[in-house]
Amino acid sequence: MLNLLRLLISLVLALAAAGVGAALTVTDDAGRAVTLPGPAQRIVSLAPHITELLFAAGAGEHIVAVGSYSDHPPAAQALPQVGSSSGIDVERLLASRPDLVIAWQSGNGERTIARLRALGLTVFVSEPRRLEDIPRTLVQFGQLAGTKAVAEPAARAFLARQRELAERYSQRPLVRVFYQIWNQPLMTVNGEQMISQVIELCGGRNIFARLPTLAPQVGLEAVLAADPEAIVASGIGIDAPAWLDDWQRWPQLTAVRRGNLFFVPADLVQRQGPRILDGAQLLCEQLEQARSRRCAECAPPR
Fold it and tell me: Which domains does the chain have, with CATH numbers?
């Protein structure tokens, strides 16, 4: 009887251990099935948007290193950095002893990802392209880190807020928008970029949506010919870039004539994380301003 009792206890403990550390498989954005023996406990994030998504999914305490510019939430600033899209410090990454590395396909590149896999690391590729990819990624990260209890409500909250913005703004009178990433060279986004979807969410239309590349260079003449009703700049900081005011040289532009030169901080709209809806809210309010200025321009002189 004693031996039988010991056997039963051993079986119960073994089953409990198996339940805690049960293997899990999640398919990444490259279509690759990534399998872990159990929820990841030591995660390296190689991009700022990945860091934000991990924290939002409740996995912040499992992050042991991050890529450069991972500055949100503030807790991320205290984590060791292991490089950026321009290069990864592999030795420092390995020193963090990760059981999962989450990489950004567009930013880190296939060569870096292949090298990390060749070193025996488990790599999950994140490449959110549409707004609906953000709640999906939150759920995936919750699965990978064993934090679904946080991740799933966060995903639902994102979807609810997205629907609220769409219901309020997406059917408003159309505003033609030029979204400016940079000035030299003059760069924008096409219709496949998530930023263009944000513009549509707010009832706007990206004047360069039909261009074939995600972040195309455009000529000044093309902008003047398209005559946008609003120009929205991002830049790299928390303040409007000085080059936004350069458009004042062309008072014939509708956006200039009506005072529709707007700024949205890049971190709020160019990172594929939960805060993109904060950027969307700001942009929607700005396009409402543009709509309100139509009547003012048409009013007869006194």
Answer: 22-155 (3.40.50.1980), 171-298 (3.40.50.1980)
